[in-house]
Amino acid sequence: MALAGRFPQAWLDELRDRADIVQVVSRYVQLTPKGGRYWGLCPFHGEKTASFSVNPQRQMYYCFGCHAGGSAITFVMEMEHMEFREAVTLLAEQVHLALPEMTGERQEGISRSEKERIYEANRQCARFYHSQLWKSENEPILAYLHGRGVDDATIRVFGLGSTPARSDGATKALLEQGFTEDELVKAGISVKRDGRIYDMFRQRAIFPIIDAQGRVLGFGGRALGDAKPKYLNTGDTPVFNKRLGVFAANLLKKQRNLRRVILVEGYMDVVALVQCGVVGVCATLGTALTLEQARLLKRYAPEIWVSYDGDAAGQHAILRALDIFDEEGVRARVLDFPDGMDPDEFIRARGLEGFETLEPMDATTYRMKQELSAHDMSTQEGRTAYAIACAKFLSKVREPVELENHVKRLMVATGFSREVLLAQIGHTEMIEQSKQPVYRHAARPLETKNEGVDTETAAAEKRLLQLLSEGRVEAGVISAEDFISPERRMLAEKLLSGMTPGAILEEMDDEEQRARAASVLTQDSGAHGEEELRMTGDCLRILHKKRIEEKIAALQRQVMQLQGEEKRSVLLQIQELMKERQTAGRKE
Questions:
Q1: pLDDT above 70 as % of the chain
Q2: How far apart are CA 562 and CA 567, in angstroms?
Q3: Which of 48, 122, 297, 567 is surrounded by the fewest CB atoms within 10 Å?
Q4: Are 158 and 208 within 8 A, CB to CB?
Q5: pLDDT, tens only, 78-122
Q6: Distance CA 48, CA 65 (A)
Q7: Which H/E stretch holds residue 263?
Q8: Distances (CA, A) of 234 to 121, 215, 316
């Protein structure tokens, strides 16, 4: 993983040894021992028959259904939607292993213990604000929430609160709990000016901003009446940056196997949708969507539905968000609410049933719809400009079937022919085809990707890797150079260097590569006793024979270009190699 290098390798090895993968997985999946492994229902895809296995010897998990595989660290990353460093930190805390000092932390100028004090100050402040909401002097704020349709149960789910009547009420309460003025200022809870310290938030409804680990990072405050600004967020602190997180991340974490995340603009949109039973809802933190937030959201679901307000600003923000999701490679759709309504207004008016009838619009269709409003389609000039603008969107559509559908709609809207539009888009290769082309994008089965190596050779390489992962081959018997496939040679190098299968999978960012490797490393060789030597020898002979055949093929290609003595010399080499090939596959 990208951040693995920031941790000392010896320390990571100790963490893997202490964080027994069976115990880690058992916190999430009910496991049953069988045949030296532990089995359970896969948490990554729906199934009724257990195909998810945990191998304690190799410290790895693998699902024979969806091909998910990895170590205890990658398992926590997937289940908790964490980055590598976050998962490592969580596991280290669970096994009581002190974290090494990180270079980045020293540069931040604040220690880990100081951060923990800020987290605790935020937690206590959130409890204080929540308790204030129920006091008579803060009845206007509670009435505001009730007036927006928020019930008491939802108030408690989100930990909503109220600022106290006094302008320094929160500050004094936390000082009495032992926090220092410096800690409160660093946390963004208090402001210090002209020798006086007072609360950052005053006369506002409070929305705690909580991360996926349940830590209070900061607060959003909604002013009543015409006070400005309408919404005020905690500024950047050592534990909070509004560009990096989303509101209600703690609720997203609890919802497994989401097929989509709904991204809205405001805190109240999230509260209203969740109260009505919509799952997987979050909001940006008072700022336009950032790349960091897009990366965070794709951990939770394969698709994002952007559901911003129906006004002009909201629609423009949707277009910006779609560009960011495109840049990050995240599939995004748009929920376009009727009559310019925002999500909060719509769900209160139509309820969950009405919400579920909304059909999300794909990103390209939405862009074309928005572009349409900028052109006068009653004129040829307007239709031409619209076609040219839409061609820019369509040039980025990767799926030919989707492109064909969009082109058909554009033909109807503009009157231009399919050929002209495809030429404008830049897909001239489709123009000459009389029928809709057939495109085959289906991936080959996981087990058949052999990188040009024949089935017998691939099987031999896989068997050797299994023997290595089981520790059944003595040092010096096998080398990485024995392998022909670059991918499996890399696995052999890592196993021979002493890495465990789980640790190897941890380093792989490419999901398909990790799945292929996990499929090989989770299998048992089936060898026992003397069978280990026999199996190893058989596999090495197969690989040796394959390398001879590759040399012969290369010389045969070369000999076609030669003449005279050079040609005779190469032909003799080919004859010698053919003799060697005849004996290479024989058992001694």
A1: 90
A2: 5
A3: 48
A4: yes
A5: 888 888 888 898 899 888 888 886 544 444 456 778 889 999 999
A6: 11
A7: strand 261-264
A8: 13, 15, 25
Long-range contacts, 529-534 (Cβ 8 Å, 24+): 532/467, 532/472, 532/473
Amino acid at position 88, single letter: V
Q: DSSP readout, 71-84?
A: -HHHHHHHHHT--H
Secondary-structure breakdown of the chain: helix, strand, coil percentages, each rounded to the nearest 5: 50, 10, 35
* Number of Cβ atoms within 10 Å of the Cβ of 159: 18
User: d(Cα 312, Cα 318) in Å, to the nearest integer?
Assistant: 10
Cα–Cα distance, 168 to 444 (Å, whole number): 65
491-542 pLDDT, tens per residue?
988 998 888 888 899 888 888 888 889 988 988 887 776 677 788 888 888 8
In this structure, are strands 331-334 and 361-362 parallel, antiparallel, or unpaired?
antiparallel
Please state the three-class secondary structure of 284-304 as a single string.
Answer: CCCCCCCHHHHHHHCCCCCEE
Q: How far apart are CA 134 and CA 127, in angstroms?
A: 12
Q: CA-to-CA distance for 271 and 264, rounded, in angstroms?
A: 11
For the record, the structure tokens of 306 come out as 């952007």
Alpha carbons 165 and 143: distance in angstroms, whole number: 15
- The set of residues, in sequence order, having a beta carbon less than 8 Å from that of 108 and lying 6+ positions away, is 238
**Secondary structure letter of residue 58 according to DSSP:** T
Is the bond preceding residue 229 a cis peptide, omega within 30 degrees? yes
Residue 477's nearest CA partner among 435, 542, 539, 548 is 539
